[in-house]
Amino acid sequence: MKTLKIIFCCICLSHGVIEAHPGIGIVIDSKGNVFYTDLAHVWKISSDGELSIAVKDIHTHELYIDSEDNLYGEHEWYEGEATDKWGNYVWCLTSDGVFEKVIPDVEGFLDNNTLVRDPQGNSHWSEKLGDHQLLRKQSVGGENSLMTNHHFDDIRWMHFSKHSNNLYVVDNLKIKKVTPEGEVIVIADKLKEKESIFDVSDRHYVYGIWTDQKRNVFVAVYGSGEVKKIDSKGKATTIYESGIFWAPCGGAVAPDGTLWIMEFSKRNRTRVRRISENGEHTIYKG
């Protein structure tokens, strides 16, 4: 994850513009409110459809919400060419609206920003070791351990599913399931079926993962502009296509089956599409 951020930051600077790779952060709280990042702010879509800014002037790619509806994210910034330094901190917006830093300002990027967590609060992250990566876990008490001996090639994004108790990993162009026992199973490996519509490389072709109560796995195939659903038998089906100028980068499924898809455009805009079970579409743009 750290490598991914640095590469994109270098691309942004070389072009002299403020651009960024899409965020994947979109979460739903227990009241049905949806929160998502557009890399400039964190937005809230209330359960009755009202759009507002929940956290202003925050550059975060991921979001996490706990069982008590506390929302977590990070903030990254660049100090400019004079110092050529990056900064980062992790924040929390409590369920009663209090904003606080939970990891203070650090220089550079955090190796473990604690935003991929299981229901018990344990965090998961990747660690570069030579020509491969390992998956590590930190308990609520601060104990670090290795999740599996499996060597991963290039972990892009991760999602812990409370529905199946498995960790799902985008490893280059593959989706891998990591069980609590440390078994690693490839559940999808043919996600690049066409050339990228945004001319992105293979390592940026696949983005966010999410799951539903039926243990289906959804993946935003950013490079092809599609959302694919992988069922419990491993069958992958395209269930949504963004169309011209847009591509999906993340998503979530509400308990009632409503599908939320976050999309990113060639002009670095973010929008969220709500698809009800009866097929009705509603688009939200900040």
How would you summarize the topology of this molecule?
Blueprint: H1 2-15, E1 26-28, E2 34-37, E3 42-45, E4 51-55, E5 64-65, E6 71-78, E7 86-93, E8 99-107, E9 123-129, E10 132-138, E11 144-146, E12 155-161, E13 166-171, E14 174-178, E15 184-188, E16 209-211, E17 217-221, E18 226-230, E19 236-241, E20 246-253, E21 259-265, E22 270-275, E23 281-285
Antiparallel strand pairs: 1-2, 2-3, 3-4, 5-6, 6-7, 7-8, 9-10, 10-11, 12-13, 13-14, 14-15, 16-17, 17-18, 18-19, 20-21, 21-22, 22-23
| Known CATH architecture | 6 Propeller
Which consecutive residue ranges, at least 5 long each, have pLDDT under 50? Answer: 1-20
Largest sheet: 4 strands, antiparallel
Strand order within the widest beta sheet: 1-2-3-4
Quote the distance from N terminus to C terminus.
26 Å
Secondary structure class reads mainly beta
Coarse morphology: globular
Number of domains: 1
Query: Whole-number radius of gyration?
Result: 18 Å
Mean pLDDT: 91
Q: Provide the succession of SSEs.
A: HEEEEEEEEEEEEEEEEEEEEEEE
Give the oligomeric state of the chains in this entry, treating copies of one chain as homo and distinct chains as hetero: single chain
CATH homologous superfamily designation: TolB, C-terminal domain
CATH fold node name: Neuraminidase
Helix tally? 1
State the helical fraction: under 10%
**What is the number of E strands?**
23
CATH class category name:
Mainly Beta
Strand content: 35-45%
